[in-house]
Amino acid sequence: MKKFIVPGIVLLAVIIGGVVFAMNDQNGSSAQTEDTFYNPVLPDGADPWMVKHDDYYVYTQTTGFNVTIWKTDDPTSLANAESRVIWEPEYGTPNSQNIWAPEVHFLDGKWYVYYAASGVGSEHRMFVLESETDDPFSDYTDLGQITDPADKWGIDGTVIEQGDEKFYVWSGWEGDENVSQLIYIAGMSDPATLNTERVELSRPEFEWETRGGSPSINEGPQILESDDHIHIVYSGSGSWSDFYNLGILTASKDSDLLDPASWSKKEEPVFQSGNGVFGPGHASFTKSPDDSEDWIVYHAAKAEGSGWSRNVRMQPFTFDEDGYPEFGEPVSADEPIPLPAGSEEKIYRISAEEMESEAAREEEFIRLTAGDSVQLEFDAPKDGTYTLYLYGENQQEVSMNGTIQEDAPFKVFKAANDGSAESFGMTFTTVELESGSNTIDLEVQNGEILLHHVDLRE
Prior knowledge:
By secondary structure, this protein is an all-beta fold. The protein is 1% helix and 53% strand. The strands form nine sheets. Strands 15, 16, 17, 18, 19, 20, 21, 22 and 23 form a nine-stranded mixed β-sheet that branches.
């Protein structure tokens, strides 16, 4: 990647939708404090897991090659959350490759990470890590595989707590061939050991569970409790397709959870594509900072037809009078969402209308091509590092790149599509600002983008 240098000015390059912006910190504020945010909360990611613990949030997602944990005070600020790689595999072990869908659970005073992985010449199985302390950033011990006597291909393990008892729920194969993925449950004697044979709870049977081609899929089970019910919210249909969606299994809280008769399945999906959001699935659930609201955190395709190229989104939901979740439709990427209740996050927003530019304007956007620039004025409340989010539309695909300067890493994520339609997306980077008046110049080096607005967060 090219390094842009101007005498006396340090330049940082930012890419969104194929556009390279040169950015410099000078002096001059048009930003407004906002109490809304936009999806996605992470422009790249899959299998998101978020849990609120005490007064902070613990987050993880699939990286493929390790287990990374994020920690933050605000669930919408994952892009600038503190993170740590808490475990990396040893090469050649059965859990050294394709590390998928980690989940972090606080059980019996410690953190346990459940994840799926494969090895050289071996198929996916499930494994568990145990923390040394009650700090999610502590050191972890790999306790090895967690399995039932059948020991078949399995992924997406999670835990139900019913009083003093624990149960393990996952997605797996019935036999040794990849025909279909089923939802199973087994009892646990401790957080790392199953003590019963597996019991089938669900298999793909409805049309909305089997779309997208073979194999048919029930996967990504997640636990959601209401006053009287335990729900298993799971993903159905091909994860690579726009048909990926969420279904639900429900049992009474006092029922025998190992008895399939205790569980009922809704015949229709409870969350599916809509509002320009495709393939929503593999959800987790958390509370707002003040515990008054319920939120769903999920991944979706970055654009129609982009398959496993996904980002992470979140939105509030409610329960109906019978204790079933009402998720509604996915909120579109260009619709602002009120921050979770109790959030103290500071968001400063500068719209395209408030930016200075000689480039062409189209309604709420500025169309920027090579050589065009915009200028943002911002009164920083204090010295420090700010996360700069750029939101816009573009037809091109961009993936993660490297660094411009050794001390200035940047990340680039963008929706991938076939070029036939523009898609709303976000990218982010960090910038060092001084207290008081600042001017940020954004200059397009190549490509084209419709810039909608910029958010800055402390």
